[in-house]
Amino acid sequence: MSKLHTFIGGIIVFCFSLILKIFTDLESKIVIFFNQFLFDLTFFSFLTEIGNGFFATAILIPCLSILSSKLKINYVPVQLMIVPALCIGLDVQFLKYILSFERPASILTDEIIFLEPIFIAGSFPSGHAATVLSVILIWLSFALNDLKSKESKTIFSFFILIALSVALSRVIIGAHWFSDILGSLALVLMAIAIFNINFIKAFFEKSIFFKYFSFMLIGLSWFGILFFDISDYL
Description:
The chain is an all-alpha fold. It is 70% helix and 0% strand.
């Protein structure tokens, strides 16, 4: 898929996610359906936190960067994941502020089981979903040239499964609507198209500033994990 098609696809998905917001009954039924899969609170508390920006920056991004250097795929430096993820994160916070959609917690309180902590506002789009989708999908777009080899197909399938599992866990635990996940995916698709433009990719890949800036963010994320209750800030 070309960069232009990917960007247009992101716009279409974003529009569809906003249209889905109109159909509140359908949205509620989707959340109630996915909530049936909440078989263990402890398991999902760990699964959903893979999308926590602190954990993704401190653990997921460095691991993916190292993995790309060990496997027979393109090496992906940390800044090629952190910078796009940071830009998407800012977009997410801006949209949360201006749109201010309510979360399932304020509407389906008596109909589904929630995983604490419960947030009432700032539903669209999902920050956790945007984080895990941006990191993994952008990593895949840089690491894999094509999906013809068996190894590439295995890597792609495995990490897509992880990304989708974490993103959909936000619906399963009652933290977000399905449209919030689609909104996050839309932002990621548009970011993939932009950051795969050759001169933009080359700029961030070769930038010494963004390299060390990214390492600084990784260090700060570890500081946040070790010394703060990071769930209170998301």
